[in-house]
Amino acid sequence: MRYYFHIAEDGRFIEDEDGQEFSDEQAARKEAIEACASIARDAFVKGTVRRVELDVRKESTQVLKIVISLAIEE
Hints:
The structure is a single chain. By secondary structure, this protein is an alpha+beta fold. It is about 30% helix and about 40% strand. Strands 1, 2, 3, 4 and 5 form a five-stranded antiparallel beta sheet that branches. It is elongated and about 45 Å long.
């Protein structure tokens, strides 16, 4: 099954036009969590964004949405 991982960083949308093949929804979910955590970590360290969203879709149907945000209190 082909899944698409669309990314939003502070409202800037990056569409996944190619998608990736996964054997099932659990495999897609695991990869999505790892990908979103990696994207968020890199963006947060660079200081470029404070919120990363990853919208996982199977064709036009939303399967999962992951949201990671950063709050810094000084």
